[in-house]
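User: Can you predict the 3D structure of tRNA-dihydrouridine synthase? Sequence below.
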Amino acid sequence: MIGDHIETKQCQLKDPMDLFHSGQVVKICAPMVRYSKLSFRTLVRKYGCDLCYTPMIIAADFVRSAKARDSEFTTNKGDHPLIVQFAAKEAQVLCDAARIVCPFADGIDLNCGCPQRWAMAEGYGACLINKPELVRDMVRHVRNQIDNPRFSVSIKIRIHDDLKRTVDLCQKAEASGVSWITVHGRSVEERHQPVHYDAIKIIKQSMSIPIVANGDIKTLKDAENVHHLTGADGIMVARGLLANPAMFAGYEETPLKCIQDWVDIALEHGTPFTCFHHHLMYMMERITSKQEKKVFNVLSSTSAVLDYLKDHYGV
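Assistant: Sure. Here are the predicted structure tokens for tRNA-dihydrouridine synthase:
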């Protein structure tokens, strides 16, 4: 990174690996179930986000079912650079999924960090951090079977209590050709405990590929602090962007312009009402009173929401 603050202007590079070599910290929208879909990705890209992830998609379903492909993966020309995140436990299934999205995306990410019980019971998500050989094989298979050398293959992990095991996992993945690694600085058991940024720093110092820091980053200032604490090449944000999609552009809270943009994008994309409304609830959390929330959060139609925004905010 050049200078000692994170650039608020968006990189114009469309290749994810070029982003990591741009000299600036890469600003990333995390994979979020139900939320990091095309319409929201379109919004955050307007406000300084360099790289976006789809929500996690189960690779086996995606490969098997055209219906799953249609409902889980939507993109368009402006939706780049884009990483499709998959949950997988078999190398060939991940390869097949990667091959399907390869013409439409810039890379895939293997989820090795989801701590939810159902995912781990199925052999997906965070249980993979205890199977470094399997992770290595999956990365290597995709690398070997996708012809495009610019197509990235990354992983997103949580940390072990014994950090040596995490470093070992990361080094095995690096040796198999992984493009970068995102580290959520908590163990599988930890939910709201403080993030171990010191652990991310140790991992960063042990690797020569880019490392992305993730966990509890709510403002651009937080992003700068985490970059300085860890030396991470990129900063990935989830809830901070839900609450303020303009965060990477340096806004402390969601500006009205961003709410207006969301309304325009969501209507243009035909975003389902529940999703449209939920995003607004998150965005307006910090700028509305308890009383206003009571009214806004129970609105039940797009027209009611539009009327409310017009009457109260001139949107």
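The chain is about 45% helix and 15% strand. Residues 211 and 232 are 5 Å apart (CA to CA).
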